[in-house]
Structure formats: structure tokens, C-alpha cells
Design goal:
The chain is α/β, with parallel strands linked by helices. The protein has helices at residues 5-33, 85-92, 109-112, 127-132, 138-156, 158-167, 176-183, 189-192, 195-215, 233-237, 248-271, 283-291, 315-319, 341-356, and strands spanning 39-43, 115-117, 169-173, 220-224, 276-280, 300-304, 331-333. It has a single domain (33-282, 348-359), classed as Rossmann fold (3-Layer(aba) Sandwich), CATH 3.40.50. α2 crosses α14 (341-356) and α9 runs parallel beside α11 (248-271).
Length: 361
Amino acid sequence: MTMKGGQRKNLLYTNNILCILLLQWLDLSLVKSAKVPAIIVFGDSSVDAGNNNFISTVARSNFQPYGRDFLGGKPTGRFSNGRIATDFISEAFGIKPYIPAYLDPSFNISQFATGVSFASAATGYDNATSDVLSVIPLWKQLEYYKEYQKKLGAYLGEKKAKETITKALYIISLGTNDFLENYYTIPGRASQYTPSEYQNFLAGIAQNFIHKLYDLGAKKISLGGLPPMGCLPLERTTNFAGGNDCVSNYNNIALEFNGKLNKLTTKLKKDLPGIRLVFSNPYDVLLGVVKKPGQYGFQVASMACCATGMFEMGYACSRASLFSCMDASRYVFWDSFHPTEKTNGIVANYLVKNALAQFLH
């Protein structure tokens, strides 16, 4: 039987459509099969979802006005009026709208299986930094993670747990406290190290930590950089000589350290077979928001929403909450050290697009 030209065209057209649909299905199924099943977080207050609520420290935020814009207006221990960057990242990856704190007894392994934070506000790479306010050091966060692996194995079964561990995205975000809370505030490290030597010391700890994570099965890792530390309201408030502008010295330190962390990621990708390591740098996007707040819908960048907006954080925000701003979305910073939920969302969106999107494929 011979086929007419029109019939041949229709058949070709139909075949092409079927091929396109098949390719789309295959592409979607590949993305689905390679999807990140969980996000596991290590770090400081930038990513602490409330672990410090359950240890003996003054570095807490589980009280009003913190969390007033969180789901149900609940102060969870996040150092913001609402969600933090890792919550937005989890949502962007299609997992869940927020990542719970490991030490919070109101959550269990079924919730932790898709995402958990071991982070502790006021900690750093340096153990001496965590000692300042008696918070959870980075090595202890790793011990909690090992405990978590055992719980995950019992909950999911060893095979599924191992798959989750391998495909999970690990986010590391800390370092600011090592400089602002420790090196430049407390005598000790500054007498032992020059700023450059201290950066190398911290980068060495970061390298060892990533090696240990890798040995425990982690493959997809995001190493976070420092924000423009000199633009935090606390630093601007005390910069009398500079007319309350950003402190350039602190910003330069952040830039230098970020450069070393970026080089470290390049090195480790060569040293560790199969690792997918990225450097997630919040510096430029946050500096852009601070320098031109109006372009992002903000009205205030030099002062924070909480209390007078100049130097308060933690309990100082609670005591002076009557003075807090009415609408945090107008402010870049929530307290003198931490961004508002809106800023966290902007930073998270930038990091997903510019560093983390590759983990979706």
C-alpha cells in the first residue's frame, strides 16, 4: 500500500510530537530521579533554625519580636522576623517551606529525613569562637550528624538512607563570628595570627570539615562565603569616623576570606573524586541590596527594624521591642546583625540561581 504525501507528513508530524513528548517525559523523570531528597545544614545564626533554644546560652531568639512574621507568628529561634535563607532554598528545591532544628523535640526523624539544621547561632569554624557564648562548635555539629545518620538508617532502612545521604544537599554557612565576635573583639587570636594567617587557619578547618563530610557519604556540598560584614548595622553604628558608612576594613576581610574559600572549592574538587562542591557567595547580592535598597523595594538599609535598629540583637531586641518598626519588609536588616525575611529570600534566590541550581539536574 502506497502512502500519499499528506498522510506521510501527518505521520512524520505525529512521530515528532511523540518524540518530543517522550523526551520531555524522560527529562522530567531524570530531574525527578536526581532530585535532592534532603537539605542538611551546618553553620551559625545565618542558618540556625532554633538549636540554641535547647542549650545553655544567651545567644537565643526564641521570643518576640523574633518570628513575628514566621508561620503563625511563632518565635522559633531563627534570628529574623520570619524565615531564613535555608528555608527558602528548601522551598525552591521543592522539598518543604522550612528546615527544622535537630535539637527541637517537637520534630522527629520523619521530618528530619527531608531536611535538618545542626547550626548554632554565635558559632564559627574556630572552637574559640563557639566558646565565647557557649554554643555548639562545628565538630559537635558533625557528631550530631553522625547520630542523625544512624537514626535515618533505622527509619528509612540502610539502602534508602544511604541514597538520601549521597543525594542530599549539604549547606555550610559560617565564619562571620570568627572575625566580629572573636578575632576583632577578644584578645587571643589576634596576638597569635595576622588577619591573613587567621583566614588560612579557618580555611584549613573548612577543608578538614568538608573532607569529613565527604568521608561520611556527602557528595553535593555548598560552602558559603561571608557577607559584607562591615555593612551590618552594628558595625555602621560604631563607625563614627566613617560617617556611619560601611566599615571597609571588615568588608575587605570578607572579600579576602571569600577568595580563599573559592580557591579551596577548586582544590577539593580535584582532590575528592565524585564530589560536587560549589562556593555560594552572598557578598555581592547583599552589598547590592545595602547600597541600592530602593531597587529591591526597601527603604532602610543602615539601621535595623528591631528596637532602635543600631546595636540590638537577641535579648536586647526583646526588651526594647516597643520601638521596633511596624513593617519589617521595608528594612534590609531585622536586628543589628541579621537580615529580614525579605532579604533572606532575595539572597536565597540569588544563591539558587547562581550556585545551587546545578544540583537540580
